[in-house]
Amino acid sequence: MAPPRRDDPGRRDRIIDACLDVIAEVGVAGTSHRRVAAAAGVPLGSMTYHFTGMAELLHEALSRFARTVSDGFEERMAAARDRDEAVDAVVAIIADDLFDSRRSLVLTHEIYTLAARDEAFRTLTEAWMARSRAALERHFDPATTRVLDALIEGVTIHRALDRGPTFDRAAVRDAVLRVVGR
Fold first, then answer.
1. Which end of the chain is more exposed for a tag (fewer CB within 10 A), N or C?
2. Gene3D superfamilies, per this entry (predicted)?
3. Rounded Cα gap, residues 180 and 178, in angstroms
4. Phi, psi values for residue 96, rounded to 5°
5. What is the pLDDT of residues 18-48, one digit of tens each?
6. Which helix (H) or strand (E) holds 121?
7. 103: Cβ–Cβ under 8 A, 6 or more apart, which residues?
8. DSSP 48-105
């Protein structure tokens, strides 16, 4: 008689979340089925049961991360009732929300690196940028939106790589005001 099957309906989600943790720790290059399974606390066989391969798992995990970031971005921009509050929202997105941890910075840059090489991840980043721009366009014209989006992305690169002082809130606010026009 076969042993009873364990009911674990959250296993797939746990694997995806663990994959993000592993990517944040060792990068995409160091991420393996074995590492993710260990981090998720699941048998190695669960990996191939739930995902056709590493490419699918990476795409699922990084898509989840991008959606989470986009959801927060959209919430922040939707709460702004006027242009001044929209400026405050952009400052908060840059200074507080999107890239508030080393983990978020690493995951973001891992997506960028994959997108530079792989069309599937390029599509993911294009969708992410489209959501960001749509949220910004609630308050700013399309040309300003593109520059704001680039500013947000550029600051994240500097936050991830610059060993010097990071952008403080006042510097971020000044930059946003320069882009949108005082």
1. N
2. Tetracycline Repressor, domain 2
3. 6
4. -120, -40
5. 999 999 999 999 999 999 999 999 999 989 9
6. helix 119-136
7. 21, 24
8. HHH-SSHHHHHHHHHHHHHHHHHHHHHHHHHH--SHHHHHHHHHHIIIIITT-SHHHH
**Domains identified in the chain and CATH numbers:** 9-51 (1.10.10.60), 61-180 (1.10.357.10)
Q: Which tokens belong to 100?
A: 């508030």
Tokens representing 29 are 């290059």
**Phi, psi of 3, rounded to the nearest 5 degrees:** -65, 150
What is the predicted pLDDT for the residue at 101?
Answer: 79
pLDDT at 2: 47
Compute the residue count for the chain. 182
